[in-house]
Amino acid sequence: MIVKLDKVTKTYKNGVKALDELSYEVREGEIFGLLGPNGSGKTTSINCLLSLLNYDSGSIEIFGEPMTPERYDIKAKIGVVPQNIAVFNELTVYENIDYFCGLYVKDKEKRKQLVNEAIDFVSLNNYTNFYPKKLSGGLLRRLNIACGISHKPKLIILDEPTVAVDPQTRNKILEGIVKLNELGATIIYTSHYMEEVEKICDYIVILDKGKVISHGTKEKLKNSITLGETIEVKLLTNKDNLLEKVKNIPNVLECTLHDDLLVVRSGKGETNIPNILRILSEENIKYGTIYSSQPTLNDVFLEITGKKLRD
Ligand SMILES: Nc1ncnc2c1ncn2[C@@H]1O[C@H](COP(=O)(O)OP(=O)(O)O)[C@@H](O)[C@H]1O
Ligand SMILES: [Mg+2]
Questions:
Q1: What tens digit of pLDDT does each residue of 93-137 get?
Q2: What angle do CA 288, 291, 296 make, to 5 degrees?
Q3: Are the beta carbons of 242 and 279 closer than 8 angstroms?
Q4: Fewest beta carbons less than 10 Å away: which of 16, 81, 245, 302?
Q5: Are 3 and 155 in contact, with CB atoms under 8 Å apart?
Q6: CA 192 – CA 197 distance, rounded (Å)
């Protein structure tokens, strides 16, 4: 186990209990996703595991050893990309990366090589002499990442690295994270974007109010809920009794009709498309597109908590 949190509780001075007996484990080599809405405790849990914050109770181990603020040897093997961009405005892109790398790598030649590799990795080659103030949001995010990973840490923690970046940079960042993992790093990735977590994470912990509400692979999480298939049919004509008939199809959990869009949610099992088509044909209702989808992590969150992941 690379990281182990055991029943960690953290209360801030204002009385907010940000972590409530939170436990999770990160295995070597995986991309571990911490998914939860804003305020669910993702950043607090990262700061506790790095010993940047003290906590009320519980225990934290990293690389199999108890983590304390003095364990610089452990910290040297961790790369952190914080949620809030943390770079020096008075240093250039190159100097910033060199500074952070220099915290861990003293040899100048070795460091030069690592800094250049990090610049290549985030494609900041054309900006090495720029100061942070001259960089766009997406480029700043990339600089923030380069500063956290240049020393080639075994464990890389990225806290919402794609907030407020354009879709192209977002995809580049996600590809970069997968590449870092393929090169051997274990990754902890926090996000409130379920699409990203679904895309890149091997194992997912879903947080709400400082607690784990569910965990597992994305397949396991989706299989753990009642909802199976969602079918959407664009209707061109309609009949009053349609909803009643569709609701009577076995295994249908919920059926709604808004703006000519019929939405049918069914439990796990065989598809209900043939049953719906049969009813539409019996009732002589014309239709356009039909779309079938499987549960998302948002459905998982919704079914367990009764609220949406992003409010
Ligand atoms: N420094 C702080 N002082 C008091 N409350 C805080 C502080 N930082 C975070 N919180 C509160 O703790 C809870 C968890 O916050 P946080 O860990 O930042 O969540 P997330 O990273 O998932 O958005 C929230 O209710 C937040 O308002
Ligand atoms: Mg956060």
A1: 999 999 999 999 999 999 999 999 999 999 999 999 999 999 998
A2: 155
A3: yes
A4: 16
A5: yes
A6: 8
Cβ-in-10-Å burial (0-12, 13-18, 19+) of 304 comes to: middle
Atom of ligand 1 nearest to the CA of 159: 21
> Per CATH, is 227-294 categorized as 3.40.50.10800?
no
Boundaries of every domain in the chain? 3-222, 227-294
Pairing of strands 186-191, 155-159: parallel
- Atom of ligand 1 minimally distant from the CA of 192: 22
Distance 191 CA to ligand 2 centre (A): 8
CATH H-level, domain 3-222: superfamily: P-loop containing nucleotide triphosphate hydrolases (3.40.50.300)
Q: What is the pTM (predicted TM-score) of this model?
A: 0.91
Question: Which residues are within 8 A (CB) of 89 and not within 5 positions of it... i.e. 6 or more apart?
Answer: 131, 132, 133
